[in-house]
Request: fold
Amino acid sequence: MVKDASKHKGEGHRQRLRDKFMDSGLNGFHDYEVIELLLTLATPRKDCKESAKAVLQKFETLQGVFEASVNDLCTVDGIGPKNALGIKLIQSVADRYLEKKVIGKEPVSNSRALFDYLYLSMGSKDRECFKVLFLDAKNRVTAVETLFTGTLTASSVYPREVVRAALDRSAAALIFAHNHPSGESEPSPADYSITRQLLFACQTVGITVHEHIVIGNNQYFSFADQGHIAQMNREYRKNE
Reply:
């Protein structure tokens, strides 16, 4: 029997991955299998399992792979510019998709839904990022923007710049979010302090602060859920 030269050793495995995804989505997939499936889209005739495992080992998590730069991805054996493009495209599409689910919606009463959106774009960053969600008078999100990016341990957040950005967008209310590269979601004393400063500064110009969420490694801390936003509002009214 003549062996079909068009076949490669990973073809059967590759088709099984595709069939598995078409049948039940990503349920039951290991993270490296998710990456492997992505790599097969731009690698028609090569087994991608080892490259998928190598890139996951290098960047530690699936989120880390998505957040890696194109140049860094291409340092992994078996991953070239086309593969890197696919990985970055998936991350960007997912981010856009989740953002569209938030824009025009009212996320104030659902910190978990808010976390699901924020985690993809902030959860694996190696620097602190401070993001603001701008809301209209009906508490619908009109825009999302990263206003500050800091060092490995802190972000310089300026209340004046936050207020200016809110006024420029005619925002009636705001939600703040920032990540902790350490993976811990517990807020630091500085986090409490800047939240209070921001809330007081916004209240001065009639802008409501609904929430500040700290994003950790698959976990979050909600200032609103823990009662801190309400307490700070009471402090503000007492000091008026």
Q: What stands out?
A: The longest helix spans residues 81-102. The chain has two domains: 11-96, 106-239. The domain at 106-239 is CATH 3.40.140.10 (Cytidine Deaminase; domain 2).
